[in-house]
Amino acid sequence: MSSTITEEVVMESEKSIDRLRSYISARSTSSDLSVDLDPANRLSPVYQEQHAQIMKLFLNWSEVEQVHFVEDILSRMCHHQHGQVDLFLKPMLQRDFISALPAKGLDHIAEMILSYLDAKSLCAAELVSKEWNRVICDGMMWRKLIEQMVRIDPLWSGLSERRGWNVYLFRPKPGERHQDHDFYRKLYPQIIKDIQNLENNWRTGHHTLQRIVCRSETSKGVYCLQYDDKKIISGLRDNTIKMWQRDGLECSQVLHGHTGSVLCLQYDDNVIVSGSSDATVRVWNIKTGDLLNTLIHHCEAVLHLRFADGLMVTCSKDRSIAVWDMQSATDINLRRVLVGHRAAVNVVDFDQKYIVSASGDRTIKVWHTSTCEFVRTLNGHKRGIACLQYHDRLVVSGSSDNTIRLWDVECGACLRVLEGHEELVRCIRFDNKRIVSGAYDGKIKVWDLAAALDPRAPAGTLCLRTLVEHSGRVFRLQFDEFQIVSSSHDDTILIWDFLNVQPSPVEVTAAQSPSRTYTYVSNVSK
Within 13 Å of residue 373, how many CA atoms lie on the same side as its CB? Predict the structure, then answer.
């Protein structure tokens, strides 16, 4: 019987979520609906005596007789009186299941219903009644709301780790207990303020800058990089791969083996895969730095590579694309060679559906990942294409015609052209909010992705900020919600931190380099 009641309550409560917000709003803002009669309309002694007699009769009637009597009275009342009755009946007809469920031992159902509310609605729910507020407090609804946001939003997840409040979420460590409800109630607005400050820093360009000076012994320049919370791994023009610790920015390891500049790399938990102007692809143990494998296929420089889910794609100055089956670091076999570009293939990207390549021949080509069959060519750039990223249906490319183009990979249409860089656009990345580009003009530009995809948005509103710190060409960059990490021909790696920023007393203009603080770290090659 209890199980049946619970199932019925769950079904009813799920259907009522949309009505819950309007109910909360009405209850939290309405005053007592009882009528405070004017002295002129006070009840007469005669009425009070007759009322008592009628009520005594009324209570002795059956339910059917009572309803019939009330219907007869209502039919004889005027429209204004019907309105007064309606005001009286409305709260009586509303079912306060949040208060009723705990009384039946179903607190968890009430908490589950409240878990569907956003922060604004949860604030209003606290004001409905003392009982609602008690259910919210006992159910730790603010903690659960924060935990839900951490699960579904990478921004919240990353912020929880950087600010340290992730230790107060989910299951506590053995011997520890959660903080009280008031702690999470106060934490939520602090998180929102942190996010607002972060977004404002991206818009205004306010950042803290950290600089790694690589001090290469021979030729200068950092061609490629990848980073995580603990390390940065970079490929240099001096033929080496260098690992830098994020804590202290010290060079922890140097990998030797390539006989040409390291032009591209990617790593995961186990291996680093690098491509070089020596035409080889090398696979390294990420923990020990040992060389595990050398792939010799391309006859000219390996310009770019990507690997994921047992597949690796490399491209070369020799105009070809190689598709590899990657079972392990030592078991990598060539599956197919894709030929079609008429100049060096500068960049590749792929997912389970398409491989997308871009070339100095001014074209982007799309191939089926599973069959390696050619699909279509995207034409539009006036000069060679140097960089590209592909995700879902969107392709974003940068070219030596100084422009950035956005494409729909399914139909091949160019959705927007972004202009602003003064020289070749060498590197490009995007997420669900921004496009970040780096160019040979030494500048990094941050663009509004949503505006770029809106054909009605004026061209002048698309570039949010231009960041100028590199003294040479920008070769490579990556970014996340909190930072940009970039490398340059000037032999430096810059970390642009938009989260940990000291408030600036002076608002900088768009034409000025934004306010920043510096940490200089000089390292001697090992």
Answer: 3
Q: Packing angle between helix 154-163 and helix 141-152, nearest 10 degrees?
A: 110
Residue (of 183, 284, 200, 178) closest to 508 by Cα position: 200
* Non-local CB neighbours of 325 within 8 Å, separated by 6+ positions: 310, 311, 332, 333, 334, 335
Contact 143, 44 (CB under 8 A): no
Amino acid residing at 209: L
Q: Where are the beta strands (DSSP E) in 392-462?
A: 394-399, 403-408, 414-419, 425-430, 434-439, 443-448
Pairing type for strands 474-479 and 483-488 reads antiparallel
Phi and psi for 444 in degrees, rounded to 5?
-115, 130
Distance CA 106, CA 85 (A): 33
3-state helix, strand, coil in the chain (%, to 5): 30, 35, 35
Distance CA 465, CA 419 (A): 13
pTM of the model: 0.80
In the sheet that holds 425-430, the strands lie side by side as: 425-430, 434-439, 443-448, 463-468
- Averages of pLDDT over runs of 10 residues in the chain (526 residues) are 47 54 54 45 84 91 94 93 90 81 85 90 92 91 95 95 93 83 95 96 96 88 96 96 95 96 97 98 97 97 98 98 97 97 98 98 98 97 98 97 98 97 98 97 97 95 96 97 97 97 59 45 40
